[in-house]
């Protein structure tokens, strides 16, 4: 007789920085399972890990699963890097969820829908800041998590767990704003090997303005109504607020890992092409980073 799989209200797929952060918080208020990439990583995580917050460090030990021993889940939160989106989404689908919510950067909704036909799958936005130091996860900056309508149970669970989280009816606009920020800060910091704050200072600020000016007509076509002044205030505001941070793309480049180039600049250049709009500066940063990835044999499965 087939054994019934355990069913959790929430599963988090991707036991990296954000996954560990959300699972640690959610585990304080209810059942949650953290799904690792494989059995070996799951076994290490099952020993627990350290969650570092401003209030101090605590040991947490949420239940852990892996593709060979997968529970079911009502709702799945997907937090893997862009190149891993399709594989992780297929894994999420195997948990027979009511819905799959990505909180990744970049544009991944099309990949999600292709990987999960017929399932309720969408992308939200988070500005939480977290990074890993070995097995530890450091909650580096308190942000906000916006989820699309239809994912209320996830917003409620995150809010109960102490995260700032809510349903955002204009989620499309929120995603496009985050995309604009990432299209400027991530490639420039990765190419120049500098912290975020330098994007708002000479000489990079001029290049940043060029990227913003090229991006606006494309994003306007997608529904983002921002004047150049508002767009610059948004991007330079984030650069200054996170001045001492290393962007995720810079961290990937420094660690020799694949970057999220394809779901950020790659996806954006494809959008521009569909609209017949020229984005030469985005194409230039795209080619430079693609060349860096190709030279290291780093690819993309999305
Ligand atoms: N960290 C942050 O502060 C923020 C991150 N984001 C976005 O969130 C997403 C995740 O970022 P972050 O947590 O930093 O990334 P990490 O690289 O720290 O974590 C990603 C995790 O996903 C795991 N993974 C990859 N493929 C699979 C798979 N098929 N099944 C299960 N697990 C898998 C990786 O495993 P392994 O370790 O084995 O590679 C890794 O542990 C990105 O899109 C990022 O841009 C957005 C806002 C803030
Ligand atoms: C907002 C920003 C640029 C913060 O570092 C980010 O999202 C990233 O690094 O990917």
TrEMBL record:
Domain (Ketopantoate reductase N-terminal) ranges: 10-148
Cellular component terms (Gene Ontology): cytoplasm
Catalyzed reactions: (R)-pantoate + NADP(+) = 2-dehydropantoate + NADPH + H(+)
Residue ranges annotated for the Ketopantoate reductase C-terminal domain, each copy included: 171-291
Biochemical pathway: Cofactor biosynthesis; (R)-pantothenate biosynthesis; (R)-pantoate from 3-methyl-2-oxobutanoate: step 2/2
GO-annotated biological processes: pantothenate biosynthetic process
Keywords associated with the record: NADP, Oxidoreductase, Pantothenate biosynthesis
Domain of life assignment: Bacteria
Listed transmembrane segments: none
Protein's job: Catalyzes the NADPH-dependent reduction of ketopantoate into pantoic acid.
Name recorded for this polypeptide: 2-dehydropantoate 2-reductase
Organism: Marinithermus hydrothermalis (strain DSM 14884 / JCM 11576 / T1)
């Amino acid at each position: 007789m087939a054994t019934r799989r355990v069913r959790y209200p929430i599963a988090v797929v991707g036991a990296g920085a954000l996954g560990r952060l959300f699972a640690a918080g959610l585990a304080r208020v209810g059942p949650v399972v953290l799904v690792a990439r494989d059995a070996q990583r799951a076994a290490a995580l099952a020993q627990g890990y350290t969650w570092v917050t401003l209030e101090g460090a605590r040991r947490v030990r949420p239940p852990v699963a892996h593709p060979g021993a997968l529970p079911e889940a009502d709702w799945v939160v997907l937090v893997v890097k862009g190149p891993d989106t399709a594989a992780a989404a297929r894994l999420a689908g195997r948990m027979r969820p009511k819905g799959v919510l990505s909180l990744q950067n970049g544009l991944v909704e099309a990949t999600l829908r292709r990987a999960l036909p017929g399932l309720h799958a969408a992308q939200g936005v988070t500005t939480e800041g977290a990074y890993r130091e070995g097995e530890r996860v450091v909650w580096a900056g308190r942000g906000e998590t916006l989820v699309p309508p239809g994912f209320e149970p996830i917003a409620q669970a995150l809010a109960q767990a102490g995260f700032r989280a809510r349903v955002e009816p204009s989620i499309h606009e929120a995603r496009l704003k985050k995309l604009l920020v990432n299209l400027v800060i991530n490639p420039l910091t990765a190419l120049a090997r500098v912290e975020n704050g330098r994007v708002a200072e000479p000489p990079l600020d001029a290049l940043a303005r060029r990227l913003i000016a090229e991006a606006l007509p494309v994003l306007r076509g997608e529904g983002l109504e921002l004047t150049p002044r508002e767009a610059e205030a948004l991007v330079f505001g984030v650069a200054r607020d996170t001045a001492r941070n290393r962007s995720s793309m810079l961290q990937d480049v420094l660690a020799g890992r694949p970057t999220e180039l394809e779901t950020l600049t790659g996806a954006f250049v494809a959008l521009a092409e569909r609209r017949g709009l020229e984005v030469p500066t985005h194409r230039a940063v795209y080619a430079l980073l693609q060349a860096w990835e190709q030279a290291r044999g780093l690819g993309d499965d999305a």
